[in-house]
Amino acid sequence: MTTRTPGAESDLEAAFQRDMSPAEFRRHGYAAVDLAAAYLEQVASLPPLARVEPGAVAAALPGKPPRVGEPMEAIMADIGNLLIPASTHWNHPRFFAYFNSSAAGAGILGELLTATLNANAMLWRTGPAATELEWVVCRWLARMTGLPDTFDGHINDTASSSTLVALAAAREAAGLEVRELGLAGRPELPALRVYASDQAHSSVEKAVVTLGLGRTGFRAVASDEEFRMDPRALAQAIEADLQAGHRPCAVVATVGTTASTSIDPVDEIATICERHGLWLHIDAAHGGALAILPERRGVFAGVSRAQSVVMNPHKWLFTPLDCSVLLTTRPEVLRRAFSLVPDYLATPEADRDQGFGARNLMDFGVSLGRRMRALKLWMVLRYFGQEGLERLLRSHLAMAGWLRAQLEAASDWEMCAPMPMSTLCFRHHPGRLTSEAELEAHNRDLMARVNAAGEVFISHAVLAGHFVLRATIGGLRTEPQDVAVLWEQLQTAARGADGQGGA
Ligand SMILES: Cc1ncc(COP(=O)(O)O)c(C=O)c1O
Questions:
Q1: Ligand 1 binding pocket includes 489 (Cβ within 6 Å)
Q2: 459 lines ligand 1 (CB under 6 A)
Q3: Distances from the Cα of 320 to the Cαs of 81, 191, 246, 268, 502, in angstroms?
């Protein structure tokens, strides 16, 4: 009796193309790496801000997916001809907008290998290497920034998610049985309050809204003239809420605010939190990287007193998007807030962390499936080493210092905020302009000119009601000549905006 493979002789089987062969994978893989290398080699010659009209990319793409598969060559050609020209180039050395997110080669290759392994670390057994590597790199980052081993960690996609998870844990720690009973229809429940400075990132308020506390549950605490949270205003806000019968729940302090990179006085804030039994979460999404420098470790003063800290290696640590490390001294509270194990996911091992990160990561947040994000971070940290990262960060501080000196030496430019990191807030202030409205219109025009010229990309902020220009020097590929180009472009645009030609 002969055995036949089911369906082996069917037309379907004959015509059915499974994945590319290993030989094809190699060929296309080399082509993809060539494309990536050529891109990185040439990115400096492209305009950093995409020159494309809304809708143009969608219009250039077919509305329907292909009925039959297409050759990789055609797909790659579209990436080169259509997608790259319509991209804003975060890897550009003269991308100075927002907070940089530049990807190191080691991290780019890490993404390739993450997709190759395709490990889903929802459970320890579905990704032992991914799970334990994640714990190890989080501990590395804690140690590199001077935090004690009492901090445990895991990786989320973004700081927005990390802060949401931290505040969900804070809500759980408040002991109001929200996990069991919810918030709605409970008149006996006090209104919960979360505090952050008026400079905090919008992700904090968004998390408060998502957690059902309402926008009134978010309290914006006044900041001082250097844009740092005023601890007296925090203490007063907490007292006022207590007197009104509300329940203070958590404080979010920021190390490196979005607009000016100001640093909240974490030690003083921690004392207030300890007095009232509040969860302290630190948003160090961008600024945490600076604590890697021994001489700047002071930016993390008091942070070891927090219950949770978020740092984004995808911002100032050269790891490709997305990679947000959430450190916490209370992992058991995160687990209490999020663990919900259906029968099919119950496993005999690693229900409890035995101290080496062997746990089921699905228990620590919203998502079940989880990418092996730790791999690229591990590769970046190993490739540069502590010293390499220190050198890069110091070079950013030095370049920012140079630009600041130019701005301060020029009579018609002004710095608009202190510069605790490598982000500058400044504006052009010709003597003939006196009103705030004129100054804003002038600087908006100037920014539009700078960005349209296609050499650099800067963004803006609003500080104490004033519109200011903003440049972050933090790109992996940024060198002194790039910052010199930025300064030239600013001056040229200023002449143009003044109606003296140029730009
Ligand atoms: C201080 C701060 N926190 C949080 C975020 C949000 O980061 P993500 O995009 O990772 O959610 C940002 C974004 O720039 C930020 O500046």
A1: no
A2: no
A3: 23, 39, 41, 34, 37
